[in-house]
Write a structure and sequence with these properties.
17 helices
Length: about 450
């Protein structure tokens, strides 16, 4: 048995089904088994240290060894390890979390429906919007518009909202009531010679034309991330959301803002809504809500939507929706303590302090021969990888360049994630300058190696 082929390595291959992994290749490649974490670092089972440049999956905002969160979980496990919210039951951590979350949320979002993942929260948003319009006597107003290259999860409804072909292929998605409009990436989808303002005008006009084509009386909601994460860290162009919100208001269409990745300081504000001036009717949160120490998510609602749900109970009785682990007391206690840490340590202020250095190091990669574009805000970014920089032409998928760069970066002790044709970066919010130096140092070395590899294989 070699160093990499531990007992855990073999057991993983035999029994674990890996999300977003090549299941056929996994039997040969096997897993990288991460055994422990400390601050911004994780360690594999052989003791090798990596700086976690993706916060796990965009989520470990406070790193991997926050004792206050461990203590919060332990205390709650010793007090009330489980209870539910069904049939008018409740528990102190769930109540306290709902109060604390709505207190920091954008104005008007005063109610929260808890679940366990971002996918579930977005799934619930779709279901509640259908219920809401039925209660208002608008049974035709059910279509949801999402965006190409947006990411909202992988359940049947949230996977339909996700605008990525590989999430749909052979899964019989998207659902018929889900539509997709343009991705707001001028770099990828701007026409030759088209300015960014003209691009913004064109794609928002396309959104309005889609609504008119479908019939505004049939379109219920529009969903968007402030910054599209898993679709390639797409930062919206100036004026985009201003025009989108005007169109939604014009046609009485609800706005769902997916803050699963961007919430809790990632963009330099508590929420991406603040960064981009968004006024949601619904907002979904997860990931940073608990710093990823426990699975928990929330769907926040306005008074108007909640009042309609109450009217539904006057018609039907019990609100017939809920999950066993919604606001699980341990998860709620950890999430509450996470919000307290954000406040006590001014984590959002820290992000604003280090973000300029992070973006400066990002910008330094723009001149690399393999880099077509760099983009980012706060502590989230992407490096676009191109085979032809001038033509903005990516490498063919068969070249496997993304995986090559990701793997080489890991050899240098840095974890990043390749998405389509870009390398995504999303370090813990507690990152200091030395962590940012390590992150970009490893990535820069990997890009240089990739250039040598490309030239050697021409």
């Amino acid at each position: 048995m070699t160093k990499t082929e531990s007992t855990a390595w073999h057991q993983d291959i035999a029994h674990v089904v890996h999300p977003y992994s090549n299941l056929d290749a996994h039997s040969t490649l096997g897993p990288t088994v991460i055994a422990r974490g400390d601050g911004c670092y994780v360690y594999d089972e052989h003791g090798k240290r990596y700086i976690e440049g993706m916060s796990g999956l965009w989520c470990a905002s406070l790193g991997f060894s926050e004792k206050r969160l461990v203590d919060a979980a332990t205390k709650q496990l010793n007090t009330l390890p489980y209870y539910h919210l069904f049939s008018h039951r409740s528990h102190p951590p769930g109540i306290a979390l709902a109060q604390a979350l709505t207190a920091v949320a954008p104005e008007g979002l005063n109610h929260v429906l808890f679940s366990s993942s971002g996918s579930e929260a977005n799934d619930a948003a779709v279901k509640l919007i259908w219920y809401y319009n039925n209660l208002l006597g608008r049974p035709q107003k059910k279509k949801i518009i999402s965006r190409l290259h947006g990411y909202h999860g992988v359940t049947v409804a949230s996977g339909s909202l996700t605008g990525l072909a590989h999430v749909h292929r052979d899964f019989d998605l998207p659902l018929p009531r889900v539509l997709h409009t343009d991705c707001p990436s001028h770099y990828h989808f701007g026409l030759p010679g088209e300015s960014e303002p003209a691009f913004t005008q064109r794609i928002t006009d396309n959104l309005e034309q889609l609504i008119l084509k479908e019939g505004p009386e049939t379109v219920a909601a529009f969903i968007a991330e402030p910054v599209s994460g898993a679709g390639g860290v797409i930062v919206p162009p100036a004026g985009y959301f201003e025009r989108v919100q005007a169109i939604l208001k014009k046609y009485d269409i609800l706005f769902i803002v997916d803050e699963v990745i961007t919430g809790f300081g990632r963009t330099g504000r508590m929420f991406g809504c603040e960064t981009y001036g968004l006024q949601p009717d619904m907002m979904t949160v997860a990931k940073g809500l608990s710093g990823a120490y426990q699975p928990i998510s929330g769907l926040l609602l306005t008074d108007a939507i909640h009042d309609t749900l109450r009217a539904g109970s006057r018609k039907h009785g019990a609100f017939a929706h809920g999950l066993t682990y919604a606001a699980h007391p341990v998860a709620a206690a950890v999430a509450l303590e996470t919000l307290h840490i954000y406040r006590d340590r001014d984590i959002v202020g820290h992000v604003r302090e280090v973000a300029p250095y992070f973006l400066e190091k990002l910008d330094a990669l723009a001149d690399h021969p393999l880099v077509g574009q760099v983009r980012g805000v706060g502590l989230i970014a992407a490096v676009e990888i191109t085979a032809d920089k001038a033509a903005r032409k990516p490498f063919e998928p068969t070249a496997g360049m993304g995986a090559w760069i990701q793997n080489r970066t890991m050899e240098y002790g840095v974890i990043v994630r390749t998405i389509a044709h870009c390398v995504a970066l999303c370090p813990p919010l507690i990152s200091e300058r030395q962590h940012i130096d390590e992150l970009f140092g490893g990535l820069s070395r990997a890009l240089d190696d990739a250039l040598v590899h490309v030239r050697a294989n021409k």
